[in-house]
């Protein structure tokens, strides 16, 4: 079954073509969606890519959260549609209230650009279903404000619900609970600081990012098959 992904482009996004290429290589059709659009085309999943939306003025994602398209993205998510926010996209999802917590500057106040190891602590999500419990992925990071945090009560609830999906094996940025990727309570909105779109080709150093995108496409194809008339 064909899967259609929508990649939102903000002024300052710089990873949208990487996302498009990676999703297309795995068999998805991809629409590029400008941030000023007030509605979404018919898509199965929305991707908010990395970059520096609106220059990351004020706070990362604070201005992008008010882009016209975000109302449509919010409606898509609340209707159960799948959403992935990568790096800057993760920051935008937190600012928009679609994911809990917020991102602050890395501990050490240094920009980080390197490969990291991530442990899959919840393989039962739409975004990690191809993984084995505890599987370690090699995916790069590229950020200055990747230090995720939340209040203690929220963290306790998230732990109970398995919402911290990916954890750093060796925490590079000070993120609370070693969190590298989290989902909302409903499990359909996923944010992560590492860049899976940069790890979908062995020639680039790793294919582990394809596990994340591939898991999503598996889920959507299964959903489409189940909904198809007999």
Which key features would you list for this structure?
5 helices; 230 residues; globular; Rossmann fold; 25% strand; alpha/beta; two-stranded antiparallel ribbon
What is the 3D shape? globular
CATH class placement:
Alpha Beta
Strand % is 25-35%
Low-confidence stretches: none
If strands are numbered along the chain, what order do they take across the biggest sheet?
A: 2-1-3-4-11-10-9-6-7
CATH architecture: 3-Layer(aba) Sandwich
Q: In DSSP terms, counting alpha (H) and pi (I) runs of 4 or more, how many helices?
A: 5
- Using the CA coordinates, give the radius of gyration: 16 Å
Structural class: alpha/beta
Mean pLDDT: 95
Helix content: 10-25%
Order of helices and strands: EHEEHEHEEEEHEEEH
Number of domains: 1
Describe the structure.
With 230 residues, the chain is an alpha/beta fold. The protein has one domain (4-227): Class I glutamine amidotransferase (GATase) domain (Rossmann fold). The chain has helices at residues 16-25, 69-78, 88-95, 152-161, 209-227; strands spanning 4-9, 29-34, 45-48, 82-86, 102-104, 112-120, 136-143, 147-149, 164-168, 179-183, 189-192. A nine-stranded mixed β-sheet has the order 2-1-3-4-11-10-9-6-7, sandwiched between helices. The mean pLDDT is 95.
What's the layout of helices and strands?
Blueprint: E1 4-9, H1 16-25, E2 29-34, E3 45-48, H2 69-78, E4 82-86, H3 88-95, E5 102-104, E6 112-120, E7 136-143, E8 147-149, H4 152-161, E9 164-168, E10 179-183, E11 189-192, H5 209-227
Parallel strand pairs: 1-2, 1-3, 3-4, 4-11
Antiparallel strand pairs: 5-8, 6-7, 6-9, 9-10, 10-11
């Amino acid at each position: 079954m064909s899967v259609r992904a929508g990649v939102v482009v903000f002024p300052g996004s710089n990873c949208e073509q990487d996302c498009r290429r990676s999703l297309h290589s795995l068999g998805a059709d991809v629409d590029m969606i400008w941030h000023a659009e007030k509605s979404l085309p018919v898509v199965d999943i929305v991707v908010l890519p990395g970059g520096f939306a609106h220059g990351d003025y004020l706070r990362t994602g604070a201005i992008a959260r008010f882009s016209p398209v975000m109302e449509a993205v919010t409606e898509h998510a609340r209707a159960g549609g799948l959403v992935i926010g990568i790096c800057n996209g993760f920051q935008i999802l937190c600012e928009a209230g679609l994911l809990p917590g917020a991102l602050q500057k890395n501990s050490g106040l240094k920009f980080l650009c390197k490969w990291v190891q991530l442990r899959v602590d919840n393989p039962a999500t739409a975004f990690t279903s191809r993984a084995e419990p505890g599987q370690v992925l090699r995916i790069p990071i590229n950020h200055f404000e990747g230090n995720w945090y939340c209040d203690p009560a929220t963290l306790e609830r998230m732990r109970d619900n398995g919402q911290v999906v990916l954890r750093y094996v060796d925490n590079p940025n000070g993120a609370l609970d070693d969190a590298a990727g989290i989902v909302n309570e409903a499990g359909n909105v996923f944010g992560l600081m590492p860049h899976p779109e940069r790890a979908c080709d062995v020639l680039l150093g790793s294919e582990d990012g394809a596990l994340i995108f591939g898991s999503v496409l598996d889920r959507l194809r299964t959903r489409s098959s189940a909904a198809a008339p007999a």
